[in-house]
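Morning!

This is the sequence you dropped in the shared folder:
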Amino acid sequence: MPLRRPRRVRLVLALVALPFLIALAWAASAERRSEPGPLLLVGGGTTLPVFCARALELTGGADAVVLIVPQSSADPDAGLGSIEMWREAGARDVTRLELSDPDAARRAIRRADLIWMPGGDQSRLVEALTAADLLGELRDRHARGALVGGTSAGAAAAPEWMITGKAVPVRLEAGATDLAAGLGLWPGVTVDQHFLRRERWNRFVEAVLSHPDRLGVALGESTGVLVRGAELEVIGAHNVVVLDARDAEVLPVKKGEVPAATGLRMHVLRDGMRFEWVKTE
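The structure's back. Tokens below.
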């Protein structure tokens, strides 16, 4: 007959082990929370209901805490349309980021499950968040799992370096596309938006050739990418164009000269298609 420990001994052992088990569970939970959240970037135009549906599906449905970041616009009513859009999609807790109270703004970012940035001027958006010292909060919240998305300027601002829109090249000319520091949410990528309707081939191609280490992702209107880990998924009505110069032979040129390259890869994607944007060896 196997020996059994007295009940009191078993209880003491359980109490001793309990903090250790709680610590393990907390660490596992923290590790899950430390995974970056998805990105949902839309090329402008009509924000289709499917975008909101997919975002809420990933962030808690009607219980998701949605924060609108409207600082790409100088309009005092900016963001009200987005609040209505997300409420119509089913979200119950939807608020707008206000910068008048920095502490309240930080708390709003920290509690958000879904952060949405409407259109306007991407440079204005980045400058406003930088001046309010909120860029670090936004990046940290995304790194800890919040979905961050945006349309038009909100999408353009997502990368580490963004196309500002200050220059519209009429031909391919090295250095003609103006770039500035973005939000830093999608490193290693150059994003353009309103791409097909506004015929932004010149600035997009030039931006990719000037920085061939970054993958180019150009979003058509009413079309977006859902980025999770190493993969992006196309959602919407039109196309996403991916231009990859990372393995291309790009001729060295000085600013103002005509650029050239061979061996570029272009992918024209549509709704439902997936693409591994992280380069694998």
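Headline: The longest strand covers residues 223-228.

More detail when I'm at my desk.
O.
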